[in-house]
Design goal:
This protein has about 400 residues and is an alpha/beta fold. Helix content is about 40%, strand content about 15%. It is built from 14 helices and 16 strands. Strands 3-2-1-4-7-8 form a 6-stranded parallel sheet, with helices on both faces. A 6-stranded mixed sheet has the order 13-14-12-11-15-16, with helices on both faces. α8 links the parallel β9 and β10. The longest helix has about 30 residues. The chain is globular. Bound molecules: nicotinamide-adenine-dinucleotide (NAD). The site of nicotinamide-adenine-dinucleotide (NAD) has 28 residues, from α1 and α5.
Length: about 400
């Protein structure tokens, strides 16, 4: 694509992992205003402090190289923008079988109060067909969907070196190319593939990609359950099958289950999208993840511990949040049997969590725990390995 030297005005709604990383990337060459309803995040960003834990984001913010400001004043931010990115939360409610896209719709309505012409780019994850339906309901073709593939903890890095840039656009290819070019120009990677496709296909790419990742996690976890129950060396088996180049040695480390903000809700959403579509695999992935956590909880209880120590609630060691982490699912199951649990989670800043004592002193935590349950291993547990229960075989995420 030929370079575009124009400096665009871009607004980003939602300063979370997705919004912040896109704002940082785009502010390398454009004027970006990030909008949030949480004043603290706005204050932090304006003070050069990253509101989420991300080393690269912090480096860029400290460098003074970005044309990036933050505000709670949506009117000012949206009225002057060429592109407005929506990166607000979406959630899946499995009881109501309903994917909550209300924050995206709310921001969209707000945007159109202040700007009729800005191209709206949805980066939040939405159900398949959502963007087209929003277009039809509002008779507005000026809405795009561009899936986001970042991982928390390295959000900016994943956007600087993206595996691909996908833009879902239903009528104006030039506009889609303009947005893809903005993303490319902010990135540092080379030969980044760009695909322009209809918005519904782009939404499907996002949900099927995350569901494949969940499938892979569930597969290696189920392999590990088999190996552990049969007394086999799980690591050796995984290494052996990974040498087949079609399978590979990546993304194969057993855990207590897939978790985090995206995989649980995106897999459930895809199952819901399959309503009336024949399938066995897609719905089994969600069930397999539940079975794995049941199994892990049972293995812990088999040891009849007086006190179970839960080492970290986060999904990954370098993460700063534990939204829907797998160990929470295990802890819930342990609590349901009346087990006594204590937690070591230094990012929590509270004395108790789910009626469990939070122990911030690692030595005391090690002392009072009969078994230490760790989804991911850490060097700081090396002196108590005889107490640790983990299925982390390769010491990586
Ligand atoms: N976190 C990830 O790894 C990831 C990866 C890919 C896609 N996604 C998707 O991107 C979306 C956002 O994810 P996230 O992790 O960045 O969320 P987040 O919860 O970290 O951040 C969302 C932000 O939006 C703000 N917000 C809510 N309503 C608002 C409004 N009306 N106006 C302005 N700001 C508002 C919130 O205060 C919050 O700061 C979700 O749909 C998620 O599924 C997330």
């Amino acid at each position: 694509m030929p370079p575009d030297t124009k400096k665009y005005n871009i607004a980003v709604a939602g300063i979370g992992y997705v919004g912040l990383s896109n704002a940082v990337l785009l502010a390398r060459r454009n004027r970006v205003v990030a909008v949030d309803i949480v004043e603290k995040k706005v204050r932090m960003l304006n003070g050069g402090i990253s509101p989420v834990h991300d080393t690269q984001a912090q480096e860029f913010l400290s460098s003074g190289e970005l044309d990036l400001t933050a505000t709670t004043d949506a009117a000012a931010a949206y009225s002057n923008a060429d592109f407005i990115i929506i990166s607000t939360p979406t959630n899946y409610d499995s009881e109501k079988n309903y994917f909550d896209t209300s924050s995206v719709e709310r921001v969209y309505r707000q945007i159109r109060l202040y700007s009729k012409s800005a191209a709206v780019v949805i980066k939040s994850t939405v159900p398949i067909g959502f963007t087209e339906s929003l277009q039809e309901r509002n008779n507005d073709r000026n809405i795009l969907f561009s899936p986001e593939f970042l991982r928390e903890g390295q959000a900016v890095r994943d956007n600087l070196f993206p595996s691909r840039i996908i833009v879902g656009e239903n009528c104006n290819r030039q506009r889609a190319e303009a947005f893809a070019r903005l993303m490319l120009e902010g990135a540092l990677g080379e030969n980044i593939p760009v695909m322009i496709m209809p918005s519904t296909e782009a939404e499907a790419v996002k949900l099927f990609a995350n569901t494949y990742l969940a499938l892979r996690v569930a597969f290696f976890n189920e392999l590990d359950t088999y190996a552990e129950m049969k007394g086999l060396d799980s690591r050796t088996i995984i290494e052996g099958i990974g040498l087949d180049g079609r399978i590979g040695t990546h993304y194969n480390n057993p855990s207590f289950g897939y978790g985090g903000y995206c995989l649980p809700k995106d897999t459930k959403q895809l199952v819901a999208n399959y309503c009336n579509v024949p399938n066995d695999i897609i719905s089994s992935i969600v069930a397999a993840n539940r079975t794995r956590k049941d199994y892990i909880a049972r293995k812990i209880l088999e040891q009849k511990p007086g006190t179970v120590g839960i080492y970290r609630l986060t999904m990954k060691i370098d993460s700063d949040n534990f939204r829907h982490s797998a160990i929470l699912g295990v802890l819930r199951r342990l609590k349901e049997t009346g087990a006594n649990a204590v937690i070591y989670e230094p990012t929590l800043g509270e004395d108790s969590f789910w009626d469990c004592r939070v122990i911030n002193d690692l030595d005391e935590f090690k002392r009072v725990s009969d078994i230490i349950v760790a989804n991911r291993m850490s060097a700081e547990l090396s002196d108590v390995m005889d107490k640790v229960y983990s299925r982390d075989l390769f010491s990586r995420d």
